[in-house]
Design brief:
homodimer; alpha+beta; 45% strand
């Protein structure tokens, strides 16, 4: 399956934003307004939420809750109009002060130069 | 999206096989007979091939061509009836003696306890 050039372009931009901790800027720049988000586990209050505003809110809630001590962002790995990114985070919960390691694989679908779907694979 | 128990069970078994270099045993034990394989780039001679025999042949061709010096297998990361695995290989091409680093993310779909689809995300 051939990968259109735009898939890799969007993927490289997203990875570049996320490597700099600019996850919200990535959403603003690269997401379609009606983006669909699929999570292995729904964040409380975010169940079934759609669209770019919900995606920004979800990122903001996560950043409000967690301080990121370090992050690794590997990718993009393309397949057709989709690409994969592997994230690893070392975080401290701002409230409980608990330090945690989290990781997830995300699959992004691209259409007309914008991300129309994000799917997050992880365990808790 | 909830992950059925069987998704993680199949995922753990696959990762365990692959960590031991037993990729062909993984296919034999865990793949459905009519498994569908989607590659970022088709291997010459394997275009559009389907089913477990083609999956075994593809793995065998790759192993015949490449000596694996070391491998890292991270996962499984589940989402519903699918799971992700991130592979990194340090290989030496048996013919050209060229040493290479390759990596890819795979998404596997599980149905009735068997892998019915594998999708490989990578660049060359």
């Amino acid at each position: 399956m051939e990968t259109p050039k735009e898939t890799m372009e969007v993927g490289r931009k997203l990875v570049d934003f996320c490597k700099h901790g600019d996850n919200i800027k990535a959403v603003e720049a690269l997401y379609a307004s009606d983006v669909v988000s699929v999570e292995a586990m729904e964040m409380p209050g975010m169940e079934g939420k759609k669209g770019i505003e919900a995606a920004i809110k979800k990122n903001q809630m996560w950043l409000d809750e967690n301080e990121v001590n370090s992050a690794s962002v590997e990718g993009p790995f393309p397949l057709g109009d989709r690409f994969a990114v592997h994230y690893k985070f070392d975080t401290t919960n701002r409230k409980s002060k608990e330090r945690m390691k989290m990781e997830e694989v995300a699959i992004y679908s691209v259409k007309n130069g914008k991300i129309v779907k994000e799917e997050f694979f992880y365990t808790m």
